[in-house]
Design goal:
Elements (H helix, E strand, L loop, with lengths): L10 H7 L1 H14 L6 H14 L3 E5 L2 H11 L7 E5 L5 H8 L3 E5 L10 H7 L4 E7 L8 H9 L5 E4 L7 E2 L2 E2 L6 E5 L13 E5 L2 H10 L4 E3 L2 E2 L10 H10 L3 H19 L6 E2 L13 E5 L5 H10 L29 H9 E4 L7 H14 L5
Parallel strand pairs: 2-3, 2-4, 4-5, 5-8
Antiparallel strand pairs: 1-9, 6-7, 8-9, 10-11, 12-13, 13-14
Helix pairs in contact: 2-9, 3-9, 4-5, 4-8, 6-7, 10-13
Length: 376
């Protein structure tokens, strides 16, 4: 009998386990008649601030809008440059471009694929107004080194922590390491919502006030606009549902880490021509589990082989940002950021969501070994 397929991601498994609690939260919002901002959003913001260890957490409409409003709060615009890694999701640089500033791309580290401090140093110019450090795949970037490089030039660092809610580095959580932190509650994230949603964090009272104004068309008082903002507000329903999920996050992250450890045990000693994710610190959350093949030409055949056996996979990301058609005119040219370009060719993400069973993880690992002709 053919075993059931293993999806790359399945939110329903977790949500159905707390269906009654989520339904009660939904009904509570409906009874309140408060659907935009309001008490549910305020309660969720307070819970997030306490969990992340920051003074302020401001709910916004998406992770992309969190990045955009953070840049706007810093006054970044035309003529400015913002450095970000070339190997990340498009929104990191897309938000920079939308302010009128120029995204400047730096290379990444070969182990974690996070922003390389040495490449960052080379990318800084007199026009650099900010750095966006991405905590890729749930592993915190080397913030101490990045802050030292940027801080030496008086340049603030924004954390793109979309994939890293709950991640830690040196005892502090993502979102509390830079001047501003930006999170996504897209359904696939560690703390996944029921649509789009995001969060901006900061310890700065002034920046928090600007973010709150900018998310509501630049007004803190109705019809009194001190800034030109946008419609970046978080829905009360999203906040209510997410607030009920937040207390369970710790257990879910431990499941992700357990799956990663199981993959490492099953694949790490098999002599396979691939590299496993850098475990990083104990605070890695494994929002994705991304392996790297020694031979890029075998990545797509491996993906097809796994699909034939019912194993879902994804490619994060098939092209680095500096080679995307919309950004290619900005440079640098192909070959200039070799680690990012190699990562785009050589990486493949395996299933890692918390509700995977141990048997499913073992099946995925066995299929990977089978592709390379190993049964060890």
């Amino acid at each position: 009998m053919t075993p059931p397929p293993i999806p790359f991601f399945d939110r329903a498994r977790g949500d159905l386990a707390m269906q009654d609690e989520l339904s009660a939260a939904f009904a509570s919002v409906v009874r309140s008649g408060r659907y935009i901002l309001g008490p549910e959003v305020e309660a969720f913001e307070a819970a997030c601030a306490a969990y992340l260890g920051v003074r302020h957490a401001v709910g916004v409409s998406s992770g992309t809008d969190a990045l955009l409003v953070a840049l706007m709060a810093l006054g970044i615009g035309a003529g400015d440059e913002v450095v970000c890694p070339a190997y990340t999701f498009f929104a990191t640089a897309g938000a920079v471009h939308r302010t009128g500033a120029r995204p400047v791309f730096a290379d990444v580290l070969p182990g974690s694929f996070n922003l390389d401090p040495a490449s960052l140093a080379r990318a800084l110019t007199e026009r650099t107004r900010a750095v966006v450090a991405v905590h890729l795949f749930g592993d915190c970037a080397p913030m101490d080194e990045l802050l030292a490089v940027a801080g030496g030039r008086g340049v603030p660092v924004i954390e793109d922590a979309a994939q890293a809610f709950g991640a830690e580095r040196a005892g502090r959580r993502a979102g509390a390491l830079g001047l501003l932190g930006c999170f996504s509650f897209f359904p696939t994230k560690n703390l996944g919502g029921f649509g789009d949603g995001g969060l901006v964090t900061t310890d700065s009272d002034d920046l928090a006030e600007r973010v709150r104004s900018l998310r509501a068309q630049g007004a803190r008082t109705k019809h009194h606009h001190t800034l030109v903002g946008g419609n970046f507000r978080l829905d009360a329903l999203q906040a209510a549902l997410l607030r009920r999920k937040l207390p369970r996050l710790g257990a879910l992250l431990e499941r992700r880490r357990a799956h990663a450890a199981r993959y490492a045990a099953l694949l790490g000693g098999a002599g396979l021509p691939l590299s496993l994710p850098d475990a990083g610190s104990a605070g890695h959350t494994f929002n994705q589990y991304v392996i790297r093949l020694d031979d890029a030409s075998r990545r797509d055949p491996l993906r097809s082989f796994l699909a034939e056996r019912g194993v879902g996979t994804e490619v994060y990301y098939p092209a680095p940002l500096h080679l995307q058609p919309c950004f290619a005119p900005l440079g640098p040219p192909k070959g200039a950021l070799p680690v990012a370009e190699a990562a785009a060719r050589e990486t493949l993400a395996l299933p890692i969501f918390p509700e995977l069973t141990d048997e499913e993880v073992a099946r995925v690992a066995a299929a990977v070994r089978a592709f390379f002709g190993s049964s060890g």
